[in-house]
């Protein structure tokens, strides 16, 4: 039966590509509440389209809770294997940075271009069409296999949280929303505010997101000459415009803040050094500085599976009140309340209060866990790559929202990561290889013995 599989997989390549182009065409960026849909009409359209594709392949489909999520199921039996991904995409960014329209899928040099091709429409469809190939090869499923389509992954995970409240949880599964082979550890993700009254009267605002290292900060207050002199002394890059000093940093994702230069931190260090009296500025300058691990606050906080704690001051807003917006990635074996206690204590020393904004609990399965072992074995056999090892990540996938779940593909080691960037694209040959890997993986997890 499985000898026939490769020809059924080949037969699914063209339908997979066509379905991906259809889905990429839908600009499913979160537009909260628009048109009466939880995340806007385009996200809803992408959800309905994915369910339609699955229905046409022979899945039983369910449109969940007014469009918060949907799922497509096949097979029979008590046990449920979950495959979790998402249909929402991040915004296109600057259109002039794209060679083609971000939502006008184009095939060129073996790549399919368009927002969502890698994250996460391509990977989800690769797994979906893998099941179709298994069905055509006559595989019967001793467990149910359920594709869970989230619609709010790039923002606040309200979709998957609704799903968890209302629906059956799979006993095991994977999320095709990362790299191959297997991501078995994802750090705890804490986003928080430190707030307090603004006693200094200093006005300052900058940064655009919790999870991005800010690459520039503008200061248009008093004492610009002294500030410029201090920046020179510190060796921090800046430029002076007619009415402001602009401190230059380097953007990076908050999971790897050490790859960036935090412009908020640099401005705060310089402002503190010239004697500006602001609680938030002093906190950043004296407790954090340019240390991406915030060692002064947390000590050497790290573990073997997932590495060091990462800390990013993503936004600062000094208006009527003072507010810092911070992204903190916590090693998988470190308790959240330990981190909160240390951070609260440091904040209190500077007259600031800790307030949680969002929390995603970590993912950690031991390397000898059966799901890690099964998926690694399949990956090695099908891809021929015996070098790549299970990995840990500072990023977050739905895998952490379900028990016995890991992130598994679909980006192969030889493919450039273009998700969230202009000219996002999926290498079609790799997508077909991923479909093959998924077919064997799902067969291994759910086929009748
Ligand atoms: Zn994703």
Description:
Helices cover 32% and strands 26% of the residues. The protein is built from twelve helices and 26 strands. It is α+β, with helices and mostly antiparallel strands. Strand 14 and strand 15 form a beta hairpin. Strands 1, 2, 3, 6, 7, 9, 22, 23 and 24 form a nine-stranded mixed beta sheet that branches. A five-stranded antiparallel beta sheet has the order 11-19-20-10-21, with helices on one face. A three-stranded antiparallel beta sheet has the order 4-5-26. The chain is elongated and about 75 Å long. It starts with a helix and ends with a helix. The site of zinc ion has 5 residues, from loops.
Write the layout of secondary structure elements.
Layout: H1 5-11, H2 13-24, H3 41-57, E1 60-64, E2 69-74, E3 80-86, E4 106-108, E5 111-113, H4 121-136, E6 144-150, H5 158-166, E7 172-175, E8 178-179, E9 182-186, E10 188-197, E11 204-206, E12 212-213, E13 216-219, H6 224-234, E14 238-240, E15 245-248, E16 252-253, H7 263-273, H8 279-288, H9 295-298, E17 302-303, E18 307-308, E19 310-318, E20 321-330, H10 336-349, E21 353-360, E22 363-364, H11 370-383, E23 391-393, E24 405-408, E25 410-411, E26 425-427, H12 428-446
Parallel strand pairs: 3-6, 3-7, 7-24, 8-25, 9-23
Antiparallel strand pairs: 1-2, 2-6, 4-5, 5-26, 9-22, 9-24, 10-20, 10-21, 11-19, 12-16, 13-15, 14-15, 17-18, 19-20
Helix pairs in contact: 1-4, 2-4, 4-12, 6-7, 7-8, 11-12
Bound molecules: zinc ion.
Zinc ion binds at residues 86, 119-120, 153, 177.
């Amino acid at each position: 039966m499985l000898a026939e599989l490769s020809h059924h997989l080949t037969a699914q390549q063209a339908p997979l590509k066509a379905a991906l182009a259809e889905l990429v065409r839908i600009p499913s960026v979160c537009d909260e509440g628009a048109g009466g849909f939880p995340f806007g009409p385009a996200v809803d359209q992408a959800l309905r389209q994915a369910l339609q594709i699955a229905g046409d392949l022979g899945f039983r489909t369910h449109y969940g809770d007014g469009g918060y999520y949907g799922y497509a199921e096949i097979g029979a039996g008590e046990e449920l294997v979950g495959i979790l991904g998402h249909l929402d995409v991040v915004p296109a960014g600057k259109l002039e940075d794209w060679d083609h329209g971000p939502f006008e899928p184009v095939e060129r040099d073996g790549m399919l271009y368009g927002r969502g091709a890698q994250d996460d429409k391509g990977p989800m469809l690769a797994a979906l069409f893998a099941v179709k190939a298994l069905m055509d090869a006559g595989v019967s499923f001793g467990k149910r296999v359920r594709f869970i389509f989230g619609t709010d992954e790039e923002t606040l995970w309200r979709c998957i949280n609704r799903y968890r409240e209302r629906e059956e949880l799979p006993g095991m599964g994977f999320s095709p929303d990362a790299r191959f082979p297997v991501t078995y550890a994802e750090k705890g993700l804490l986003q928080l505010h430190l707030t307090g009254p603004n006693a200094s009267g200093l006005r300052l605002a900058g940064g655009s997101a919790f999870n991005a290292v800010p690459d520039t900060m503008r200061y248009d207050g008093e004492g610009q000459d002294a500030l410029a002199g201090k920046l020179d002394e510190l060796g921090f890059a800046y430029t002076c415009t007619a009415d402001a000093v602009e401190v230059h940093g380097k953007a990076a994702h908050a999971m790897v803040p050490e790859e960036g230069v935090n412009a908020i931190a640099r401005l705060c260090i310089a402002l503190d050094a010239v004697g500006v009296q602001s609680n938030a500025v002093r906190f950043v300058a004296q407790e954090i500085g340019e240390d991406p691990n915030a060692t002064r606050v947390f000590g050497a906080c790290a573990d073997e599976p997932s590495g060091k704690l990462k800390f990013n001051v993503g936004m600062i807003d000094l208006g009527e009140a003072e507010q810092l917006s911070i992204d903190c990635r916590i090693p998988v074996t470190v308790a959240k309340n330990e981190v909160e206690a240390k951070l609260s204590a440091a904040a209190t020393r500077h007259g600031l209060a800790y307030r949680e904004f969002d929390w995603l609990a970590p993912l950690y399965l031991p390397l000898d866990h059966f799901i890690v072992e099964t998926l690694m074995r399949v990956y090695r056999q099908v891809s021929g790559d015996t070098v790549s090892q299970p990995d840990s990540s500072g990023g977050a996938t739905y895998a952490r929202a379900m028990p016995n779940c890991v992130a598994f593909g679909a980006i192969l080691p030889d493919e450039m990561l273009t998700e969230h960037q202009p000219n996002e694209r999926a290498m079609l040959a790799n997508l077909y290889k991923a479909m093959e890997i998924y077919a064997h993986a799902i067969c291994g997890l759910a086929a009748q013995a």
